[in-house]
Amino acid sequence: MQKKEEGTGKLWGGRFKQSASPIMERIGESVSFDQKLYKEDLEGSRAHAKMLHKIGILNAEELKQILEGLSQVESEIESGNFKFSSELEDIHMHIESRLTELKGEVGKKLHTARSRNDQVAQDTRLYVRNRIEEILDRLESLRKALYTRAGENVDTIIPGYTHLQVAQPVRASHFLLAYFWMFTRDAEFFRFAQESANLLVLGSGAMAGVNYQNDRDFLASELRTNGISPNSMDAVASRDHLLQFLFAATQTMLHASRFCEDIILYSSQEFGLIRLPDSLTTGSSIMPQKKNPDIAELIRGKSARVTGNLNHLIGLLKGLPLTYNRDLQEDKLAVFDAVETVLISLEGLEAMVSEMQFRPERGERSLKEGFATATDLADFLVGEKKIAFRTAHELVGRLVSECVERKENLFTVPEEVRIKISSHFSGEEYQKAVSLELSADKKASYGGTARSRQLEQLELAKKSLESSSKH
Questions:
Q1: Ranges assigned E (strand) in 118-212
Q2: Rounded mean pLDDT of the chain?
Q3: What sections of the sequence does the record tag as coiled-coil (predicted)?
């Protein structure tokens, strides 16, 4: 049995006569992770203090003392001299407690017309808004790297794959720009999530509003939000902005993981289409010949963490009644981890894009061995010789089968063998029909891999980068 005490030492402890048990303090603390919100909590507190002064709760001197105190708290945290304790539970209580130590009774006035419920809801919105800005910068840098490398590799021909089998020749620029547009959509998704987060919820109180004529328009202006929450219950209960952030993060990491899978495959001995520098690979502790694409593998693995973070929040929110519930303390772990994971993954991707080199000679070998221009040969029979497609398909199929038996390809099989299958498989016309480069240039439909379309697409990518720089 715990001994009854006159007070608990908690800022909320007036109603309680017993101090919290050790397990209550250990399971209830969040400052070990939510201290990441300190800048946003200070930002919200400064705006709230100025609003309290505006509506007459604080006089000018009290406001000055509070702002000075908050600046000192910020300095102590950033210098590493701030003392964190599980007894004070979270970052909000730590800042308020230290402010009161520094400034006395005036520090106790800061929480007027505010609850931890609307305070933390606002903090997480500001955090997501600010971290998305960092992620957008990383995405922009990655997109620029992809654009630059695509421009350098317009004339590099590599295999394109379906079912992981050689399909058709494509320009390496086409491959790189495919990911450029994926990450462009990711940036747009993050901007949507940022807009969703940039709403004022401070001033909603615990859940029903507050007993003061607070000036929420003033708060919105101070915190640079784009709107004000219309319903105080929804304001403290909703975590949609975190869900949307994690949806965007998950989509980005899925794209990153697919890119890494391509890099891992293409840098293997069997494919050999790209080469990564020594600085971005590792060796084996036992096999001296190994050169492992560890960054790509780690990013591929990290994508699972972000997917798990999204599932974590979905499960957390699924059965919660209105309004605030302590379960929501667990929402920040998923968001903090996703932020760090996305940022380092995008940095790793950019490093690989900037340093990897294509090996066109290996691409040519794979394309020839994979009969990548067989479709072009069939289309030549259809378009130039007016042969029915099914007949053309059969003739080319027979030629490929003959090549396989002879261990030849469409470029090395003797002409006398070809013309036994079709008299049209002869001369310069045949050579043009199976040409790797001409095959790529025949794909001249909008968005295709023809050189003219690649230059067109690079111009679109350039305009996309110029447009995003204006945001």
A1: 157-162, 165-171
A2: 94
A3: none
| 316-374 pLDDT per residue, tens | 999 999 999 999 999 999 999 999 999 999 999 999 999 999 999 999 999 999 999 99
The DSSP result for 379-440, as a single string, is HHHHHTT---HHHHHHHHHHHHHHHHHHT--TTTS-HHHHHHH-TTS-HHHHHHHH-HHHHH
The reply to whether 92 belongs to the active site is no
pTM for this model (two decimals): 0.92
Residues 232 and 344 grouped into a single domain: yes
> Does the annotation count 422 as an active-site position?
no
What is the torsion angle, in degrees rounded to the nearest 10, for the CA atoms of residue 99, residue 102, residue 103 and residue 107? 20
Residue tagged active-site, from 71, 75, 284, 467: 284
Query: Which of 338, 256, 257 minimizes the C-alpha distance to 305?
Result: 338
Cis peptide before 323, with omega less than 30 degrees from 0? Answer: yes
Catalytic residue among 32, 163, 279, 423: 163
Domain limits for position 72: 20-112
263 lies in the same domain as 340: yes
The string over 161-181, giving b where at least 16 C-beta atoms fall within 10 Å of a residue's C-beta and e elsewhere, is beeeebebbbbbbbbbbbbbb
Do 208 and 76 share a structural domain?
no
CA-nearest of 273, 264, 248, 270 to 159 is 273
Q: Tell me the per-residue pLDDT of 372-431, one tens digit each, with 9 for 90 and over.
A: 999 999 999 999 999 999 999 999 999 999 999 999 999 999 999 999 999 999 999 999
CATH code, 225: 1.20.200.10
Q: Please report whether residue 210 resides in a domain.
A: yes
Query: Which segments within 330-396 are labelled E, that is strand?
Result: 357-358
Same domain, yes or no, for 167 and 29? no
We report the CATH number of the domain holding residue 25 as: 1.10.275.10
Produce one character per residue of 113-131: b if its CB has 16 or more CB atoms within 10 Å, e if not: bbbbbbbbbbbbbbbbbeb
**What span, in angstroms and rounded, lies between the C-alpha atoms of 345 and 297?**
11
DSSP string, 45-78: HHHHHHHHHHTTSS-HHHHHHHHHHHHHHHHHHH
Angle of helix 91-103 relative to helix 116-152, nearest 10 degrees? Answer: 120
Long-range contacts of 98-101 (CB under 8 A, 24+ apart): 98/69, 98/73, 99/66, 99/69, 99/70, 99/73
Number of domains making up the chain: 3
Give the 3-state secondary structure of residue 340. helix
